[in-house]
Design a protein that fits this description.
133 residues; alpha+beta; Tetrahydropterin Synthase, Chain A; five-stranded mixed sheet; 2 helices
Length: 133
């Protein structure tokens, strides 16, 4: 199995409207380090998993609409608690779609998988893994 990855970050505000989250029920900010990996069993025609610059650009495009935004107001989280796990799921879905829309020679060979990990701190994270269509 081969893999490539990129990292970026985003800053969001949100509230976790569930008594389980104690003081985090109130509006607060979070800065996430976003790590994205693409895994493939084979290398493509250019002897790479995928175009690394295209992956980096796709991640930045997906992060831009949530960066410095309140997730409580984002349509993807209407009626949902925007936990780190749910945000990782949302980003994984959006990034997988962005990768699927790339030109064929920039995409990974099939089958490929995507891993998105959000780090809340150096020692706490959540993530989501999914296939790339």
């Amino acid at each position: 199995m081969f893999s490539v990855g990129v990292s970026d970050y985003c800053m969001v505000a949100h509230s976790l409207a569930d008594p389980t989250f104690g003081p985090a029920q109130r509006l607060h900010g979070a800065t996430y380090t976003v790590e994205v990996e693409v895994h493939s069993r084979a290398l493509g025609g250019h002897n790479v998993v995928m175009d690394l610059a295209a992956l980096r650009d796709a991640v930045r495009r997906v992060l831009a609409p949530i960066d410095y935004r309140n997730l409580d107001e984002h349509p993807a989280f209407a009626g949902r608690v925007s936990t780190t796990e749910r945000l990782a799921e949302y980003l994984a879905d959006m990034i997988a779609d962005a990768i699927a829309d790339l030109p064929e020679d920039a995409r990974p060979t099939e089958p490929a998988n995507l891993r998105v990990r959000l780090r809340e701190s150096p020692n706490a994270w959540a993530g989501c893994d999914r296939p790339i269509p």
